[in-house]
Amino acid sequence: MSGGVDSSVAxxxxxxxxxxxxxxxxxxxPADGSDDDIRVAKxxxxxxxxxxxxxDCRELFDKEVVDHFCSEYGRGRTPNPCVRCNEHVKxxxxxxxxxxxxxxxxxxxxxxxIERLGSSGRYQLKKGSDGGKDQSYFLYFLRQDIMERIxxxxxxxxxxxxxxxxKSLGLASADRDESQDxxxxxxxxxxxxxxxxxPQAGEPGPIxxxxxxxxxxxxxxxxxxxxxxxxxxxxxxxxxxxxxIDAKHNAIIVGTKADVYGDELVASNLNWxxxxxxxxxxxxxxxxxxxxxxxxxxxxxxxxxxxxVKFAQPQMAxxxxxxxxxxxxxxxxxxxxxxxxxxx
Length: 344
Description:
Low-confidence stretches: none
Strand content: 25-35%
Mean pLDDT: 93
Helix content: 25-40%
CATH architecture of the largest domain: 3-Layer(aba) Sandwich
Distance between the termini: 42 Å
CATH class of the largest domain: Alpha Beta
CATH superfamily of the largest domain: HUPs
Structural class: alpha+beta
Number of domains: 3
Radius of gyration: 21 Å
Order of helices and strands: HEHEHHEEEHEHHEEEEHEEEEEE
């Protein structure tokens, strides 16, 4: 229970179904950042008549999420801390707490669905029914042994209905704002946050065109991401976009909008849900960012740890460090981390 409306209603629905429910809030932020979440979560638990516990994950979160977040920006990449937190902190901590409490399942407020196939007994991860809130992208890392212990009560629900339920029950979380993507960065100032931990990522350097000509100076590679147009302070006959970040030489590469598009990438850190391994190219749809439209692609294994993804149509701003997630209709086939743009 994060203190948000989604996890609150997930708990309420399970209680209504007759389940014995225990609320758990994981502490990941400093005390001044987590106490309000814990207070609201405990208030909801009291309202529902269930026990409430906390799990202190601040040290693990700092190591696996915050340090990784900063180091990725220092490498000229754009990380996805929500995926990283889910994979390395949140689900691990909740499953550990479930074992401690002798609980059979862990339930979360994610908008996604887990179904078990009767023919094979294999679990599938599927998109949530609310297309505008579907969060399956953030869960592609789930393994079979984890999915058998996960419940997603909101998978078939619309967000509006979830808020209506929370209000009808008088839950303190009913009108809370949506959580932010970078929950550990105060006031959204991730540049200041990363710069304090990695000063070298904030050092000025050259802005180069694709031929290597210097067009201006940037104020630190941490301030830029692939596809960015604003904030470069240079004039040109046509709009320029960030097309590459060369961390080794502390340089930002810019080009035209057409230069931002690419039709091929290599991904690593793979997890497959629909099968254990594959040896032949497969046609799927691939999503390179959470709010990005899926594109038709051929996924080809390079090795046990990498795949090549070739899109039928060029995609805008393929960004190293982001997750690429593969779909077959509403089913999540698997996913990984974008390593580089271009072929393997």
